[in-house]
Design goal:
By secondary structure, the chain is an alpha+beta fold. The protein has two helices and two strands, in the order E-H-E-H.
Length: about 55
Protein backbone atom coordinates (compact mmCIF):
# COMPACT_ATOMS: atom_id res chain seq x y z
CA UNK A 1 0.00 0.00 0.00
CA UNK A 2 1.24 3.48 -0.88
CA UNK A 3 0.46 6.55 1.19
CA UNK A 4 -1.71 9.24 -0.37
CA UNK A 5 0.23 12.35 -1.29
CA UNK A 6 -2.21 14.16 -3.60
CA UNK A 7 -5.77 15.42 -3.26
CA UNK A 8 -7.73 14.43 -6.34
CA UNK A 9 -10.96 15.97 -7.61
CA UNK A 10 -13.38 13.09 -8.22
CA UNK A 11 -15.17 15.24 -10.79
CA UNK A 12 -12.65 17.50 -12.56
CA UNK A 13 -13.31 21.12 -11.65
CA UNK A 14 -12.26 22.58 -15.02
CA UNK A 15 -11.78 26.00 -13.41
CA UNK A 16 -15.04 25.98 -11.42
CA UNK A 17 -13.83 27.30 -8.06
CA UNK A 18 -16.98 26.12 -6.24
CA UNK A 19 -16.31 22.55 -7.38
CA UNK A 20 -12.56 23.00 -6.74
CA UNK A 21 -13.14 23.78 -3.04
CA UNK A 22 -16.01 21.28 -2.51
CA UNK A 23 -14.42 18.81 -0.08
CA UNK A 24 -17.04 16.16 -0.94
CA UNK A 25 -15.40 16.12 -4.40
CA UNK A 26 -11.96 15.27 -3.00
CA UNK A 27 -10.27 11.91 -2.62
CA UNK A 28 -6.75 11.02 -1.49
CA UNK A 29 -4.48 9.35 -4.06
CA UNK A 30 -0.80 8.56 -4.28
CA UNK A 31 1.00 10.71 -6.84
CA UNK A 32 1.35 7.88 -9.38
CA UNK A 33 -2.38 7.11 -9.43
CA UNK A 34 -3.31 10.80 -9.48
CA UNK A 35 -1.07 11.34 -12.52
CA UNK A 36 -2.57 8.32 -14.30
CA UNK A 37 -6.15 9.43 -13.58
CA UNK A 38 -5.46 13.00 -14.68
CA UNK A 39 -3.83 11.78 -17.91
CA UNK A 40 -6.89 9.63 -18.71
CA UNK A 41 -9.27 12.51 -18.04
CA UNK A 42 -7.28 15.22 -19.82
CA UNK A 43 -5.96 13.18 -22.72
CA UNK A 44 -2.35 13.22 -21.53
CA UNK A 45 0.25 10.65 -22.58
CA UNK A 46 -1.50 10.36 -25.98
CA UNK A 47 -4.79 9.18 -24.45
CA UNK A 48 -8.18 10.29 -25.69
CA UNK A 49 -9.88 12.49 -23.07
CA UNK A 50 -12.72 10.81 -21.19
CA UNK A 51 -15.99 12.21 -22.64
CA UNK A 52 -17.26 13.51 -19.31
CA UNK A 53 -13.87 13.96 -17.69
CA UNK A 54 -14.74 11.54 -14.91
CA UNK A 55 -12.81 8.36 -14.36
CA UNK A 56 -12.37 6.19 -11.29
CA UNK A 57 -8.98 4.82 -10.32
Amino acid sequence: MTAATDVDHIQPHRGDMTLFWDSSNWQPLCHRHHAQKTAREDGGFGNTPHPRGVSKV
